[in-house]
Amino acid sequence: MITVKAPEQYWNEPDLLFKSGSLIAPLGKTALIIAGKKALDTVRSIFLDSLDQSGIAYSILEFGGKVTTSEVEAYTVTALEKKADVVIGIGGGKALDLSKAVGGKLSLPVVAVPTVAATCASWAAVSVLYDDLGRSSGYLLNQRSPALVLADTRVLAAAPKRYLASGIGDTIVKWYETVVNSNDDPDGLDIRFATQTAKLALDRLHTHSLQAYETAGTGKVTPAFTETIDAVIVLAGLAGTLQGSTARAAIAHSIHNSLTFIPQTSGSLHGEKVAFGLLTQVVLEQRTEAEINQLAIWLHKLGLPLTLKELGIVQDPAIIAIEIARRFQLRENADKGLSFEVNESLLIQALQQADQWGRRIIQEAYTK
């Protein structure tokens, strides 16, 4: 069996939020809005005016914490108290993930309004969970994706370019993580489907990502920027949400999860940690020097971290690599289909080698 979860509608155009109320109204008339403070300030007047014009009543809850099981429960109770019939998430991944979790708990439609394109959270039918210290604590698999995604490209183009780089990094990872699980198993159609979708995203980013990154933060919506947004939200979201019976070895994301247990990385974005995880993965795979170099240079041009130091870690890489590898964990039996071995000893070596590789790429770029 293959499960494909996707929004009923995905909108992406400049100044989209001016008509957001009319698009949301068919889903419900009493909204609970869960939003980051900065995100809400960015869209408040336009978005709330549009809701008013469409006769949608709303309550606003600002959110700036961690998506924990206790927060999900607390916001779910509030949604019940407010008699909400639609949940609207505004902001980055955490606000959107919390909104999806609350909507999923109550079987309510969710509207995702991303104000940064740092992940595919506005599409994906999953909420990433953390503990109170910001450490990874698993995933909540929601029954469906948001019913409606409103990607106002004018808003997204005005967001700081660091967030777009994070989203690009998280999207690049999708193909590398998925393709290593591909095989000729008749039951592996989900993997082949996801691999091709992720490859399309990778190809579009090869063509457009650097140009999009260059203009990010200016508010200018270019064709390259729109192509990049679609790759980050739609293609990465679809590739990650396709599910079948095959257990996938998500190596870069598993390294990300381990990195969240190191307090110094708390200032790094999801896609930044995943990018370093990807560099480690391609070293672990023993890809060619030319392949690794090409990938590392691309990530560096996007301002993504290539070293543990860039993630905020000041300890000796040889020591911290042991800690990261010790907490690294794949899904059960997920490594069975890999063509290369993954164990703690090899991962420690790969982490150190990735850090060394990153330092060399940075030094070479600096001296040019």
The secondary structure category is: alpha/beta
How would a textbook summarize the main sheet? 6 strands, parallel
- Highest-level CATH class of the largest domain: Alpha Beta
Tally of extended strands?
8
Order of helices and strands: EHEHEHEHEEEEHHHHHHHHH
**Annotated CATH topology of the largest domain:** Rossmann fold
Average pLDDT taken over every residue: 95
How does this model look, in words?
By secondary structure, the chain is an alpha/beta fold. It folds into two domains: 1-246, Rossmann fold (3-Layer(aba) Sandwich), CATH 3.40.50.1970; 248-362, Dehydroquinate synthase-like - alpha domain (Dehydroquinate synthase-like, alpha domain, Up-down Bundle). The chain is built from 13 helices and eight strands. It has helices at residues 20-24, 37-53, 69-81, 93-106, 153-158, 161-179, 189-215, 223-241, 251-259, 270-285, 289-301, 317-327, 344-367; strands at 9-13, 30-35, 57-62, 86-91, 110-114, 126-130, 136-141, 148-152. The strands form two sheets. Strands 1-8-5-4-2-3 form a six-stranded parallel β-sheet, sandwiched between helices. A two-stranded antiparallel ribbon has the order 6-7. A hairpin with a 5-residue loop joins β6 (126-130) and β7. α9 packs across α12, α10 (270-285) packs antiparallel against α11 and α10 (270-285) packs across α13. The radius of gyration is 20 Å and the shape is globular. It starts with 8 loop residues before the first strand and ends with a helix. The model has no long low-confidence stretch (mean pLDDT 95).
Features:
368 residues, alpha/beta, 2 domains, two-stranded antiparallel ribbon, 52% helix, ADH_Fe/GldA, NAD, metal-binding, ADH_Fe_CS, oxidoreductase
